[in-house]
Write a structure and sequence with these properties.
heterodimer, A: Non-ribosomal Peptide Synthetase Peptidyl Carrier Protein, Chain A, B: alpha/beta, Chloramphenicol Acetyltransferase, Rossmann fold, 6 domains, 6-stranded mixed beta sheet, 5-stranded mixed beta sheet, 29 helices, 21% strand
Chain lengths: 82, 1052
C-alpha cells in the first residue's frame, strides 16, 4: 500500500460530500468516525500501530483530522506482544 | 480441546469477559447467537464453498477461540481445521421455497447455545436453489467472537478464498499473521486498561447514571418482570430521496447519522416510556491495533449514552449540542468495559437482562465493502432471539438507509412495536424537515377513540331536571317503595310529599334558586327528601360529614355561603340548623314552590386541596342526568333495583346510589343499622334487604367478601358490585367468591370529584379470567378521555400519560375559587372548540382496545429506586399466604430514596409467617417490589370515604422500624449456622471484606458481575448448588444464599 501526504486531501475527498477545507467540520463534510478509522488504517506504518479510538471524539475538523493522521503515520512501532 | 492447560493461553478482552459472564448467567444464552448471511454468485460449486469456509476458519483466529471460565477466564486458539472438522449444514430447495428453507436453516443453526469451553463458537450452513441460480452461506456464531465491524473482514476473506486469489503458502503466512494480530490486539486492550484512571473516569459518570429512571416500554400492571428473549423484527426502509434528505439534515446540523439517530431514537423512547432521560445502549469500537481491522472478533464496548430530552428545546439544540456531547462523552470512554460501568453504578438488577439499559441502537458497518465477484451481499437477519427489550439496527446499503426494530415479544407486543416504529418514522421525518421545531413537536397527536354518544334520559323532556324525572317516576309508581330503612319504608308518593313539605319550609326560610343549602347526616329517608327539596327550590345541596372537624365544616359553609343546614349534629356560627321534619310545612303533597327551569348546579362536594383548604366542586345537573341514563343501561337499573346506600352523603358516590335509582323506580336501601366498617353486619344487611346493587370503596371489597365467605351466606339477589376510589387489584379470595356467584358482575368505576364517574370496566358474571390489576375501562357516554404523553401530545395506545377529561362530564369548577379552577380546568386545545378539559393528575395508559389502565398518581406515585411500584400487587400476593386477612403496603420515605413496608392483619386466631410471606413475594415480584419491613397490625386505618389511610400507616412504620432497629442492632452480623458462616467467609475473601453481615446486600460490599460470577462458581463447586443470577439478585444477601444452598443442595 503506497501512501503520500500529497494525496491526503484526495483520500479524504473520496469519503466527503462536497467541498471542504481544513476548517470544515467533519460532520458537515459527511465524514463519519468509521471513515476516520479507515483513513487511519491506511496511513498507519504497521499492523501493530495503535489507534486510540477514545481520542476520535476530539477530532472535529478536517485540519485536525490531517494533523492526527500525520501524527499516527509517524508513530514509532509498538512493542511486539510478549 | 477441553483442557486449556495444553495450549498457550492468553487473557480475554474485558468486553469478552463481560459477555462470557452474561452467557453463563442467562437462562437463554442462545440470545448471543448471531447470524450472518453471505449471498454467493450463482453457480459457485459447493466444494469450493466448503474449502473457502475451512480457509476462513483458519484465517480468522476468533473462530478458533476456546475459553476456560474457571478458576480464571482465559482463552486459546485452536489449530487449523482439517476438512472433516467443519460441519456445514446443507439445505436445498426449489426456488419458491428458497427463503423459507433459509429461515429453517437459520432456526436450526441458532436454536442451540454454544459451549464456549469446548468450541467451536460457530456453525456453518449452506442453502441453495435446486437449479443452482442462488446460494448463500449462513454463518451462526457466538457474539463473543463477533461484532458489527467483523462483517467487512469476513466478507473480504470469503471473497478471496472463494475466488482462489491466495496460494496455500499465502494462506499459511496470512494465518500466522492474523493469529499474532489477534493476540496483539487483546494485549493492547489489556495494556490500555492499566493506563486508564478507571475510578476517576467512572466517579461522576456513575453518579449521573444512577439518577436516570428505568425505561419501561409499554408499562402496565401485567408486564412480565423478565424478558423471554424471544424476538421479532419490523423493518423500515427509506427510499433514496428520503435517505438523501436524512444525510443532508445530518450535515446541516454537523452531526453524524449515528448522533442524529441516537437523539431521535432517544426521544421516541422517552415518549413511549414516559420519561425525559433515557439510556440508549450502543456499541463503541474498542479496537486499538491497525491489524485488528482485518479481524473478526468482539472488540466493542457497549456503553449507555445518556440522552436527556429537553422537550421544549429545538431539535437543532438537542441533536447538535446535547446528544452530540453525550455521544462524544461515550466515544471518549470507548475503551471502558460495560461491566466496569455496571460495577460503579451498582444498578438495581432484575436478573436476566442488561442492568443499565433496555434498548440499544446499533449502526451496522457495511461501509466500503462493495459486493465482490463471489460474495455479492451480506447482511444480518433476525435470529428469533432478542437480547434487549428493543433494538434498533441502522445501516446504509448503497444509497439508502435501512432500519430494523427488534423487540422482545413478551415485553413489547407487535402492536406496540408498530407504534414505536411509527413514532420513529414520524420523528425522523420531522427532524429532517425542520430542525427549528421543538423536540416535543417531533411528534403529533395520535388519533383518540371517539367517545360513546350519550343517550338522553328515556322519557324525559328536553330541559327537564332531576326532580322532574323522579316526579315522573313517582307518578308512575306512587305506591312502590322509594327508600327503605330497617324500620321504615317510604313510598314514592310519601317521598315526594315530604319533599314538597320541606321545599315549602325552605321557601319560607327564603331559600330560592341559586342558594346553597347544607345537608348533614340524618336518617336516609329524611336526607333524600331534604336533598330533593333543595333541588326543588332550584338551590344547590352541600352535603357535609358530621365526623369532620368543626373548623373544616365552618370553612366549607363559608365557601358555599350556606345560611341553612338541614340535619342534625352540627352547630356552626351563622348557619341555621334544622331537621327535615322540623323544617317541613305540611301541605297536600302538591307542588307549592315555583319550578325553576334552569338546570343549575346540583351539588357541591368538597375535596381536599393541596394547601389544606378544601375545594368545593360545583356539579351541574346536565352531566348527572347523562350519568343516570348510563347507569340505567349499563347496570340494568329499573324498578327491581335495590341499591344499598353505603357512601357518606359527602362522597360523590352517594349520588350514584340514590338519584338514578329513584329515577328508575328502584329502592334505595339504607345501610343502617349496620355500621359502615362492620362488614359481617353489612353482609347481613345486604342479604336480608335483598340488595341487588352495591358500590363499595375498593378497600372495603375484600373485607366484605371475607365476611360473606366466613358467614357462609348466599347473596342470590346481588347482581352488580361496583368498586371505586382506589386501584382495584383482585386476589384469589375475591375471584373465588365471585366465581361462586355467576349471576353477579364486578364493575370498576373511576372518576374524580371534579367530574362525575367517567369510566367503567365490567368484569362479567361467570367469567373467571379476570385480570389482577383491573383496568378503569372505557369512557362513559359523552366523556372524552385524553391521554397526554410526555411530549404534550395525545398518546398512541401503549404510551403512558396524564389523563385529561372533557365532554359532558365536567363540573363547573371550584366554587368561588377562580384561580384553582383556571389551573385545573384548562382550554381543550385538542378539540379547539373553546371547551374545557380537566387535568386529573392521574397517570394512565390506553391499550389497543381503547381500555384505560390506571398506573398511579403523577404527584404521589410510589417509586422505589426509580421503578414505579404497584402497591396493590404486593398486597394481593401477600394475602395469598395462609393466615393473612388483609395486607397493606406503604412506601416510607428515607434520606436517599424510599423503601417498602408491608402491614399484615392476621385472620382471627392466625399468626402469619413472615418468612413465608417473603418467600411468596420473592417468588413472584421483582426485587425492588419486596418490602424491607413486615409488621402485624390489629386493624387497617381508613379515611372517611373508606380509602385505606396509608399516611397513618407510613407514620406508624417509622415508629415500628425504630423499635425494630433498636432491638436487632446487637445481633445484626450474627450468622445463624455453619452454611451462613462459610458463605460469609467465601464472599468476604472475594470481596476483600473482613466481616459480612448475612442480612446486608452483598452489592453494598462491592459485589459486581465478575466477582459474583466467581463466587457463584465456587459455591457450585463447594455445595453442588447452582444459583442462577435471577435468584441472586432477588435477594443478594448471605442469608438468602444460604437458604438457596440448603434448598438446592439438599445437604444442609
Amino acid at each position: 500500500m503506497s501512501f503520500t501526504w500529497e494525496g491526503l486531501d484526495e483520500r479524504i475527498a473520496r469519503h466527503a460530500d462536497g467541498a471542504f477545507d481544513d476548517s470544515t467540520l467533519l460532520n458537515e463534510a459527511g465524514i463519519e468516525s468509521l471513515t476516520l478509522l479507515r483513513l487511519a488504517v491506511q496511513v498507519a506504518p504497521s499492523n501493530d500501530t495503535e489507534i486510540d479510538a477514545s481520542q476520535l471524539a476530539a477530532i472535529r475538523t478536517v485540519g485536525e483530522l490531517k494533523a492526527w493522521l500525520r501524527q499516527l503515520a509517524s508513530a514509532p512501532p509498538a512493542d511486539p506482544p510478549v | 480441546m477441553p483442557d486449556g492447560q495444553q495450549h498457550v493461553t492468553f487473557p480475554v478482552a474485558a468486553s469478552q469477559r463481560g459477555l462470557l459472564v452474561a452467557d453463563r448467567w442467562l437462562q437463554r444464552p442462545e440470545v448471543y447467537n448471531q447470524i450472518v448471511q453471505f449471498e454467493l454468485a450463482a453457480g459457485t460449486p459447493f466444494e469450493r464453498v466448503r474449502s473457502a469456509i475451512i480457509d476462513l476458519v483458519f484465517l480468522q483466529p476468533a473462530l478458533r477461540q476456546v475459553f476456560r471460565l474457571q478458576p480464571d477466564i482465559t482463552t486459546w486458539l485452536g489449530p487449523r481445521p482439517k476438512p472433516g472438522d467443519v460441519t456445514i449444514m446443507r439445505n436445498t430447495a426449489e426456488h419458491p421455497d428458497y427463503e423459507r428453507a433459509t429461515a429453517l436453516l437459520i432456526d436450526e443453526l441458532a436454536r442451540q447455545p454454544f459451549d464456549l469451553t469446548i468450541g467451536p463458537p460457530y456453525r456453518f450452513g449452506y442453502v441453495s436453489t435446486r437449479d443452482g441460480s442462488a446460494a448463500r452461506i449462513v454463518l451462526c456464531l457466538h457474539h463473543v467472537v463477533f461484532d458489527g465491524m467483523s462483517l467487512g473482514p469476513l466478507m473480504r476473506d470469503l471473497e478471496e478464498t472463494l475466488t482462489g486469489h491466495r496460494t496455500q503458502n499465502d494462506l499459511h503466512t496470512r494465518g500466522a499473521e492474523r493469529d499474532a494480530a489477534y493476540v496483539r490486539e487483546l494485549s493492547a486492550q489489556a495494556e490500555a486498561r492499566t493506563l486508564r484512571d478507571l475510578p476517576g473516569l467512572l466517579a461522576d459518570w456513575s453518579r449521573e447514571l444512577r439518577l436516570v429512571p428505568p425505561l419501561v416500554l409499554a408499562p402496565g400492571p401485567h408486564r412480565p418482570a423478565e424478558p423471554s428473549h424471544r424476538g421479532a423484527r419490523r423493518p423500515l426502509r427509506l427510499d433514496p430521496l428520503e435517505s438523501a434528505t436524512f444525510d443532508r439534515a445530518c450535515r446541516s446540523l454537523a452531526v453524524s447519522p449515528y448522533t442524529f439517530l441516537t437523539g431521535v431514537f432517544g426521544a421516541v423512547l422517552g415518549r413511549h416510556g414516559g420519561v425525559s432521560t433515557v439510556l440508549v445502549g450502543s456499541p463503541f469500537n474498542a479496537r486499538r491495533t491497525v491489524g485488528s481491522y482485518d479481524l473478526c472478533g468482539f472488540f466493542v464496548n457497549t456503553l449507555p449514552v445518556m440522552v436527556e430530552i429537553p422537550w421544549a428545546s429545538t431539535v437543532k439544540e438537542f441533536l447538535g449540542t446535547s446528544v452530540r456531547n453525550a455521544v462524544d462523552f461515550c466515544r471518549s470512554r470507548a475503551d471502558i468495559a460495560l461491566q466496569d460501568v455496571v460495577a460503579a453504578v451498582q444498578p438495581e438488577r432484575t436478573g436476566d437482562r442488561n442492568p443499565l439499559f433496555s434498548c440499544l441502537l446499533a449502526m451496522q458497518d457495511t461501509g466500503d465493502d462493495r459486493p465482490g465477484d463471489a460474495v455479492t451481499g451480506v447482511h444480518e437477519p433476525a435470529t428469533g432471539w432478542a437480547k434487549f427489550d428493543l433494538w434498533l439496527g441502522a445501516s446504509r446499503i448503497g444509497d439508502t438507509w435501512s432500519f430494523d426494530l427488534e423487540y422482545d415479544t413478551s415485553l413489547v407486543s407487535g402492536a406496540t412495536a408498530r407504534q414505536i416504529l411509527d413514532s420513529f418514522r414520524e420523528a425522523l421525518d420531522r427532524a429532517c424537515d425542520d430542525a427549528s421545531r421543538t423536540v416535543a413537536d417531533l411528534f403529533r397527536d395520535a388519533v383518540q377513540p371517539l367517545p360513546p354518544v350519550p343517550c338522553p334520559p328515556a322519557g324525559l323532556a328536553d330541559g327537564a331536571r332531576l326532580v322532574d324525572w323522579i316526579d315522573a317516576t313517582a307518578r308512575r309508581l306512587p305506591d312502590a317503595t322509594a327508600v327503605e330503612e330497617k324500620d321504615r319504608r317510604l313510598t314514592y308518593r310519601e317521598l315526594m310529599a315530604a319533599t314538597e313539605d320541606i321545599a315549602a319550609g325552605l321557601a319560607q326560610s327564603g331559600v330560592s334558586a341559586g342558594d346553597f343549602v347544607a345537608v348533614a347526616g340524618d336518617r336516609l329517608s329524611d336526607s333524600v327528601s331534604a336533598i330533593l327539596a333543595v333541588l326543588r327550590c332550584g338551590a344547590t345541596f352541600v352535603p357535609l360529614d358530621p365526623a369532620l372537624p368543626v373548623d373544616r365544616l365552618d370553612t366549607m359553609v363559608r365557601i358555599a355561603g350556606c345560611r341553612i343546614m338541614i340535619g342534625a349534629g352540627i352547630e356552626l356560627a351563622g348557619v341555621r340548623t334544622m331537621t327535615a321534619p322540623d323544617l317541613a310545612v305540611r301541605g297536600n303533597g302538591k307542588p307549592r314552590v315555583g319550578r325553576d327551569p334552569t338546570r343549575g348546579p346540583a351539588y357541591v362536594m368538597f375535596t381536599s386541596g393541596s394547601t389544606g383548604r378544601p375545594k368545593g366542586v360545583l356539579m351541574g345537573e346536565g352531566p348527572l342526568l347523562i350519568l343516570a341514563a348510563w347507569q340505567h343501561a349499563a347496570l340494568r337499573q329499573d324498578e327491581n333495583t335495590r341499591y344499598l346506600q353505603y357512601a357518606p352523603l359527602s362522597f360523590d358516590v352517594s349520588y350514584l346510589e340514590i338519584f338514578p335509582v329513584l329515577a328508575a323506580g328502584g329502592v334505595v336501601v339504607a345501610r343502617e343499622p349496620a355500621d359502615r366498617r362492620d362488614f359481617p353486619a353489612l353482609v347481613e344487611r345486604v342479604r336480608e334487604a335483598r340488595v341487588s346493587h352495591l358500590f363499595l370503596p375498593t378497600a372495603a371489597l375484600r373485607p366484605f367478601v371475607l365476611s360473606a365467605l366466613r358467614a357462609g351466606v348466599a347473596l342470590p339477589e346481588l347482581r352488580h358490585i361496583c368498586a371505586g376510589g382506589e386501584q382495584l387489584v383482585l386476589d384469589d379470595v375475591v375471584r373465588k367468591f365471585l366465581a361462586e356467584m355467576p349471576h353477579c358482575e364486578l364493575v370498576n368505576i373511576y372518576g374524580p370529584t371534579e367530574t362525575h364517574a367517567v369510566t367503567a370496566h365490567h368484569l362479567p358474571a361467570g367469567e373467571h379470567e379476570w385480570p389482577a390489576h383491573v383496568p378503569i375501562g372505557r369512557p362513559m357516554p359523552g366523556v372524552v378521555t385524553y391521554v397526554v404523553d410526555a411530549t404534550g401530545h395525545l398518546a398512541p395506545p401503549g404510551v403512558p400519560g396524564e389523563l385529561y377529561l372533557a365532554g359532558s362530564c365536567l363540573s363547573d369548577g371550584y366554587l368561588n375559587d377562580p384561580e384553582r379552577t383556571a389551573a385545573s380546568f384548562v382550554e381543550d386545545r385538542f378539540a379547539g372548540d373553546g371547551g374545557r378539559m380537566y387535568r386529573t393528575g392521574d397517570y394512565v395508559i390506553r391499550d389497543e382496545d381503547g381500555v384505560l389502565v390506571y398506573l398511579g398518581r403523577l404527584d404521589t406515585q410510589v417509586k422505589i429506586r426509580g421503578y414505579r411500584v404497584e402497591l396493590g400487587e404486593i398486597e394481593t400476593t401477600a394475602t395469598g399466604v395462609d393466615g393473612v386477612q388483609e395486607a397493606v403496603a406503604v412506601a416510607r420515605r428515607t434520606d436517599s430514596d424510599a423503601d417498602l413496608v408491608l402491614f399484615l392483619r392476621a385472620a382471627p386466631g392466625a399468626n402469619p409467617d413472615h418468612d413465608e410471606v417473603r418467600r411468596k413475594l420473592g417468588a413472584s415480584l421483582p426485587a425492588y417490589m419486596l418490602p424491607k419491613w413486615i409488621f402485624n397490625i390489629d386493624h387497617v386505618p381508613v379515611s372517611g370515604t373508606g380509602k385505606t389511610d396509608r399516611v397513618v400507616l407510613a407514620g406508624l412504620s417509622h415508629t415500628l422500624i425504630a423499635e425494630a432497629n433498636t432491638a436487632a442492632a446487637p445481633s445484626a452480623a450474627t450468622c445463624r449456622d455453619d452454611t451462613e458462616r462459610e458463605l460469609a467467609a467465601l464472599w468476604g475473601e472475594i470481596l476483600g471484606v473482613d466481616t459480612i453481615d448475612p442480612g446486608r446486600s452483598l452489592l453494598q460490599y462491592g459485589a459486581h458481575s465478575l466477582n459474583i460470577f466467581v463466587a457463584l462458581g465456587r459455591m457450585e463447586n463447594r455445595y453442588g448448588a447452582v444459583v442462577d443470577v435471577g435468584a441472586f439478585f432477588r435477594d443478594p444477601t448471605v442469608a438468602a444464599l444460604a437458604g438457596l444452598v440448603r434448598d438446592r443442595s439438599g445437604t444442609v
